[in-house]
Specification:
Blueprint (H helix, E strand, L loop, with lengths): L14 H51 L8 E5 L5 E5 L7 E8 L5 E3 L3 E2 L3 E2 L2 E7 L2 E7 L2 E2 H11 L4 E7 L4 E8 L8 E5 H8 L3 E3 L4 E4 L7 E2 L5 E2 L1 E3 L2 E4 L3 E6 L2 H4 L5 E10 L20 E4 L2 E4 L24 E5 L4 E4 L6 E5 L6 E8 L4 E5 L2 E4 L7 E3 L2 E3 L4 E5 L2 E5 L3 E6 L2 E5 L7 E7 L1 H26 L3 H5 L6 H10 L7 H15 L18 E2 L10 H4 L4 E2 L1 H10 L1 H8 L13 H13 L4 H65 L1
Parallel strand pairs: 16-19
Antiparallel strand pairs: 1-35, 2-34, 3-31, 3-35, 4-11, 4-30, 5-11, 6-9, 7-8, 7-12, 10-11, 13-29, 14-28, 15-19, 17-18, 18-27, 19-26, 20-25, 20-27, 20-28, 21-22, 23-24, 23-26, 31-32, 33-34, 36-37
Length: 665
């Protein structure tokens, strides 16, 4: 049986190979165009990488002279971080400040008696007040936990309620204000008042203010002082070397929560030790005489026979110890008044207090005291907390000895651009120091140098065909190293790259004498240069324009000359409040024309986009043309195979007929 040949399927005549060879010849222009487009894409990718590195350097440069530049950042430190800390703004003065924290601001926090865990809260109108703000809502009734959730959901930062487990079957309700300050007392009204009274959060207590020390009879003179205290127009005056003792009224002592308050002021007066002058023997007029007619009789010199008494001069006395507390057993305790004008004495701290003693031991200072007042600070609107965890009060601080109060523990209105954070009373005077953030400035400069070197390295790769340039970059990965070799010398004929590199190097190495007294005018003076270390010759790497950092030199420069370094990177030279000179400013200006929208690199990228689009169209046209050509060849050679098969079939038929005829003879 003869072989079956199907045109286009079997390949008896090797027409497929012939067609493939003819199509491959047609593909030569297509491959050429594809290679051209690949070149365009590779070139575009290289420009885009260069654009990225330029943009990185420009952004880093802008950050070194913009409003947010790291050279203006400040750090604050406190000698008593547990008590007071600070956060400094960019414009904070580089100074040292002294603070004493006598009391921190607190909020009312009231704890109830133990109550049953399954307690329920009656329905009604519940109102809570903190200072001038209020929370009022209508409660439909429910469990204590549901009530707490309802209050907290509506509180909006005013109050907070919670429960504390006391035993397995009881718990206590904690109601606390979220606003500190003496003016922000926690109060209850409507059904909330009944709740507070029933759960013994508060109790009825008259709020009274009692004054004492208003009459001369109450001031008991202290024998060792020669002068006496006087009350003049409700003010107690103590001249130099005077003092008094005043008994605590019985009504005040009966309330263990009493707070006694009074103010003390001092003023300088002529020192009494300077008024003391030595006195000699009695003085007599020895020039008296008697005259009778022409006779004049003069007095003889009088001798009294008294020895002159030697007066020992006294030393002036200066003392800030004014206030003493005398206990029932006769012991005394000194109360510190340094830097304070208002004195507060809590009876809870001195339950055995009997009297207050004021002593003015000074010889050149007069004291003036206000009346003594006593009150229970816990009482408000006729009620007082039963179990207060804390009572609302203002923060009491002293800045450089000046007393002041604030309602919160975050204070930003004492020193410009400095915010204080109070945590606890200080044990001693806290010293807060403001200094530049040297670490942040150093990190910014390291980033600047890194981005600069990255750009210079890319420019070296693109503008030169020297493989050593890539091998010197030891930080590259294997894949990055391979890609860098492919880019070597890609833009050898592009003056854009070489000119930009030269401009950047010139900016980096130039001198910028901003002011006559400046000690820093070049980048190398702060430890940043192509050869930052001293000694030895320049290596090939250093000759290619990369920057190095001498960290010790940089650290010293940042510590001593932060302001000059800031000016080195960006400064206003003409007084119009706009930066117009400096290394970072000039780099930004140099790169602006390249990386901005519509800039040089953008135009190159757009040009390559046009070429890529045109090349793609050509490729598409050639691919259609080749596909059409291939189809034509397949049809043509298919027809040829069909004709050959037909001829072969006829030939086979004739052969068979002849053979059959010969066999029949």
């Amino acid at each position: 049986m003869a072989d079956i040949n199907i045109p286009g399927v079997s390949d008896k005549y090797k027409t497929n190979d012939l067609i493939a060879a003819l199509v491959e010849a047609e593909r030569i222009p297509l491959k050429r165009e594809q290679d051209k487009m690949d070149g365009y894409k590779f070139e575009q990718k290289s420009w885009q990488r260069l654009n990225l590195y330029m943009s990185n350097l420009r952004e880093t440069s802008r950050s070194l002279f913009s409003f947010d530049n790291p050279f203006s950042e400040k750090l604050s430190s406190s000698s008593q971080e547990f008590a007071i800390s600070a956060s400094a703004g960019r414009d904070a003065a580089l100074e040292t400040f002294k603070f004493d924290v006598d009391e921190i601001a607190k909020a009312d926090r009231f704890l109830s008696k133990p109550i049953e865990k399954n307690a329920t809260i009656e329905k009604g109108q519940y109102s809570f007040h903190v200072g001038e703000k209020s929370l009022s809502f209508n409660w439909k009734g429910g469990t204590l936990d549901e009530f707490i959730a309802a209050v907290n959901r509506r509180s909006n930062g005013l109050i907070k309620t919670s429960v504390i487990g006391v035993t397995s079957s009881t718990k206590s309700l904690l109601v606390e204000s979220l606003q500190t300050g003496a003016e922000n007392r926690l109060r209850f009204s409507d059904m909330a008042l009944d709740l507070a009274l029933n759960y013994e959060l508060i109790e009825a207590a008259p709020s009274e203010l009692e004054n004492f020390g208003t009459s001369q009879n109450e001031l008991q003179r202290i024998p060792e002082f020669q002068n006496e205290a006087k009350i003049i127009e409700k003010t107690i005056l103590l001249p130099p070397e005077s003092g008094f003792e005043i008994q605590i009224p019985k009504s005040v002592k009966e309330d263990p929560q009493s707070l006694i308050e009074f103010t003390v002021h001092s003023k300088t007066v002529p020192d009494i030790t300077k008024d003391t002058s030595p006195q000699s023997s009695p003085l007599f007029n020895e020039e008296l005489f008697a005259e009778f007619k022409n006779l004049m009789i003069f007095n003889e010199k009088i001798e009294v026979g008294l020895e002159e008494k030697e007066i020992i001069p006294r030393e002036p006395v200066i003392s800030d110890s004014f206030v003493y507390l005398k206990m029932e057993d006769g012991t005394r305790s000194l109360i510190s008044t340094e830097g304070k004008e208002k004195i507060r004495i809590a009876l809870s701290d001195y339950p055995k207090l009997s009297s207050i003693i004021i002593e003015n031991k000074n010889t050149g200072k007069e004291l003036s005291l206000s009346e003594f007042t006593s009150r229970n600070p816990n009482k408000i609107d006729g009620y007082a907390p039963v179990n207060p965890i804390s009572i609302a009060q203002d923060a009491q601080i002293r800045y450089e000895g000046i007393p002041m109060t604030r309602p919160t523990n975050t204070i930003d209105d004492i020193i410009p651009h400095l915010t204080l954070h109070l945590e606890n009373p200080t044990e001693k005077t806290a010293i807060i120091q403001i200094k530049p953030d040297e670490e942040k400035a150093k990190d910014a400069l390291i980033t600047f140098v890194g981005n600069y070197n990255q750009l210079i390295a890319e420019m070296n790769i693109l503008s030169q065909a020297n493989p050593d340039i890539v091998e010197e970059l030891q930080y590259l990965t294997t894949e990055e190293n391979k890609e860098a070799h492919e880019r070597l010398g890609l833009f050898r004929t592009e003056y854009t790259v070489s000119n930009t590199k030269s401009s950047l190097q010139r900016i980096i190495t130039n001198s910028y004498p901003i002011e006559l007294n400046n000690t820093i005018s070049m980048l190398s003076q702060i430890g940043i240069a192509s050869k930052a270390s001293s000694g030895g010759s320049l290596s090939n790497t250093q000759l290619r324009g990369y920057l190095e950092i001498d960290e010790k030199k940089l650290d010293a420069a940042l510590k001593e000359s932060m302001g000059e370094i800031k000016n080195l990177f960006g400064v206003d030279t003409d007084g119009d409040l706009v930066i117009d000179s400096g290394i970072a400013y000039l780099i930004d200006k140099q790169l602006q024309a390249y990386v901005t929208s519509g800039g040089i690199l953008s135009m190159k990228n757009a040009s390559l986009d046009t070429k890529i689009t045109s090349s793609q169209k050509q490729i598409d046209r050639l691919e259609v043309q080749i596909a059409k050509k291939e189809q034509e060849l397949k049809i043509k050679y298919g027809n040829m195979e069909s004709a050959l098969n037909s001829l072969q079939s006829q030939s086979d038929s004739l052969t068979n007929f002849t053979n059959s005829y010969n066999n029949n003879k």
